[in-house]
Fold this protein.
Amino acid sequence: MLLLLPTASAVEHSGPRPSRHASGDIATIASAIAGVDPAQAPNIARLGDELVSGDGAERANWALDVLLDGILAAG
């Protein structure tokens, strides 16, 4: 998992540059997250705003922090 996150991020960013409509992609994701049933996906419902806040680098850093916090909590 520790290697999967940065590898997936690198693959995602290795393609063509995002278009000027990339911010619309985040709005679409935010809308989908807002419609999540809290009973079925409580963590996504609770952290939905966090998942789409900040710019791409901030979201990537947040995701890595979440992963590392989980590893440390399990140890």
Observations:
- The chain is about 70% helix and 0% strand.
- The mean pLDDT is 83.
- Residues 29 and 52 are 8 Å apart (CA to CA).
- The longest helix spans residues 56-74.
